[in-house]
Amino acid sequence: MIKVGIIGSTGYAGGELVRLLTAHKHAEIVWYGSRSYIDKKYADVYRNMFEIVDNVCMDDNMEELAERVDVIFTATPQGLCASLVNEEILSKVKIIDLSADFRIKDAATYEKWYGLEHKSPQFIEEAVYGLCEINREKVKKARLVANPGCYTTCSILTVYPLAKEGMIDMGTLIIDAKSGTSGAGRGANVSNLYCEVNENIKAYGVTTHRHTPEIEEQLGYAAEEAVVLNFTPHLVPMNRGILVTGYAKLTRDVSDEEIKAIYDKYYADEKFIRVLEKELCPETKWVEGSNYVDINFRVDKRTGRIIMMGAMDNLVKGAAGQAVQNMNLMFGLGETEGLELVPMFP
Ligand SMILES: NC(=O)C1=CN([C@@H]2O[C@H](COP(=O)(O)OP(=O)(O)OC[C@H]3O[C@@H](n4cnc5c(N)ncnc54)[C@H](OP(=O)(O)O)[C@@H]3O)[C@@H](O)[C@H]2O)C=CC1
Ligand SMILES: CC(=O)N[C@@H](CCC(=O)OP(=O)(O)O)C(=O)O
């Protein structure tokens, strides 16, 4: 049994980790970390866990945790993991960080987009960007995994094969994304109140969203060139789900069949990526509660552009599901262990 500690188990991403790991055959959560609910029963924080989880929430002490568990998940605000980690801890325990602290390889870029000083730049190089479908072999050997962002996972996976094969002009790429409100976390915030979100849709972080440099960096590795793009997220009145629509100029005249063959080349054997049948547009309902990413595209002959579409559950493949997938790889388990979740509908 893999012993697990979760720092930030009482947030939405941490709560989803608890849901997935409670059902995982080879993992046992022994530490339900929290800041506001110390000594409270976890099932009193999340009533859906009544008679399922009996543990109480505990203080977040990474040093003590490192003695007691095999892996620590940090599902905490930006900056916290970097402020806690050190060499002694990393020599004892593996860490999967759901925040952005170790995703961006250039500390100055992180500091600029996050407005934070990076407290552990010495571990940035070592951290593996945990997008399993792309970095699988590196994840297997990692002791520190930077679990990718929710918008980022969906955006990169949707565009990656075409960037890698030079099919799109990266200078023309625009990514428009929509997220359900759980993406903003459980903390009280006026802009996420029911009356602000319900019957409403709004763009935010226009030209400044912190996921922009993360998407640029990863697609830059794929395309082998510096990528600068527009990324515009929107908040939509639903609980879960991310829908990404990417637009770019094609580098040559191609048929639908050629593009489909490229997606299949990268994803046909990927359990969690479903390239949909011709002309179907992904919908968040088709992936809700699951670790799947649904992808499709449409070539627009009239404009010479391609429209790439992806849908995913932000809390599963966009956070906890991907983190469990990384844990499975790091501990030599079957990659889909605990993740064979059938999407819920309606
Ligand atoms: N929500 C999502 O869809 C996704 C979130 N993420 C990332 O996961 C992380 C958590 O996000 P999310 O769950 O949405 O956020 P929430 O606000 O829902 O949860 C934050 C968690 O962190 C804990 N926490 C806050 N401050 C501290 C602190 N100073 N010390 C210790 N624990 C602290 C909170 O504890 P308490 O409840 O006790 O106050 C809570 O458990 C973020 O880095 C986010 O970017 C990544 C992908 C998707
Ligand atoms: C709807 C919403 O507010 N979404 C969050 C992104 C989700 C998240 O928590 O960010 P990471 O994936 O980087 O960890 C945001 O825009 O900041």
Question: Mean pLDDT, rounded to whole units?
Answer: 97
Structural class: alpha/beta
Q: Total strand count, please?
A: 14
Shape: globular
Describe this structure in words.
The structure is a single chain. The chain is an alpha/beta fold and about 350 residues long. The chain contains 12 helices and 14 strands. The strands form 2 sheets. A 7-stranded parallel sheet has the order 3-2-1-4-5-7-6, with helices on both faces. Strands 9-10-8-11-14-13-12 form a 7-stranded mixed sheet. The longest helix is centred in the middle third of the chain and has 15 residues, at about 150-165.
Task: Characterize this entry briefly.
Its main location: cytoplasm. This protein has 346 residues and is an alpha/beta fold.
Topology (SSEs and partners):
Layout: E1 2-7, H1 12-22, E2 27-33, H2 42-45, E3 57-58, H3 62-68, E4 71-74, H4 80-84, H5 87-92, E5 94-97, H6 107-114, E6 128-129, H7 132-141, E7 144-146, H8 150-164, E8 174-179, H9 194-197, E9 202-203, H10 211-223, E10 230-235, E11 242-249, H11 256-267, E12 273-275, E13 293-300, E14 305-312, H12 316-330
Parallel strand pairs: 1-2, 1-4, 2-3, 4-5, 5-7, 6-7, 8-10, 12-13
Antiparallel strand pairs: 8-11, 9-10, 11-14, 13-14
Helix pairs in contact: 1-12, 7-12, 8-10
Bound molecules: NADPH dihydro-nicotinamide-adenine-dinucleotide phosphate (NDP) and N-acetyl-L-glutamyl 5-phosphate.
N-acetyl-L-glutamyl 5-phosphate is lined by residues 99-100, 149-150, 179, 183-184, 211, 233, 235.
Task: Provide the descriptors you would attach to this structure in a database record.
Dihydrodipicolinate Reductase, domain 2; Rossmann fold; 346 residues; 7-stranded mixed sheet; 32% helix; binds NADPH dihydro-nicotinamide-adenine-dinucleotide phosphate; 2 domains; 20% strand; 7-stranded parallel sheet
